[in-house]
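Predict structure. Chain length: 175.
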Amino acid sequence: MIHSPVRDLAPQLESFFSQRLARDLHASPHTVAAYRDTFRLLLCYVSGRVGRGPAAMSVADFDAEVIASFLDYLERARGNTIRTRNSRLAAIHSFFKYLALRGPQYCAVAQQILAIPPKRTDRPLVAYLLESEVQALLLAPDLATWTGRRDRALLFLAVESGYLSDQAQVDGGRG
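Prediction complete.
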């Protein structure tokens, strides 16, 4: 008799989306869609590796090596940026955190996957605002409303105090 693997992935994924994201966290439709897209890509990728469809997969088909390989595939083959890769990893981490709480049989694989760090990415710095950009900021608030007048006053104060000028970047914002 051939021993068939436990097909525990589908019910866990369904529970994650219907209970954890929708009911417990009240995740936005955008978050749910992003997580759905991540798992659609992941399931297709792993399906190609193990030679079984998603319905026949188990949690045992996923480990840190598979997830790291998937993340590498996203960057190299699909041309995803590091930020997109890190977003996909965050969705995977969220699922495996949830899975670790569902039973002790999932703790080892969850621990491996949760140990995968996000990649570091450079953040572009805005050195200073041009005069035209400062003017555009000052003209943006609606002066017909109280909040618009308040916002304009705060922006004006920031400009006049040098906070929104190149001097703020030169001296580290210490005025």
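Summary: Residues 166-175 have pLDDT under 50 and may be disordered.
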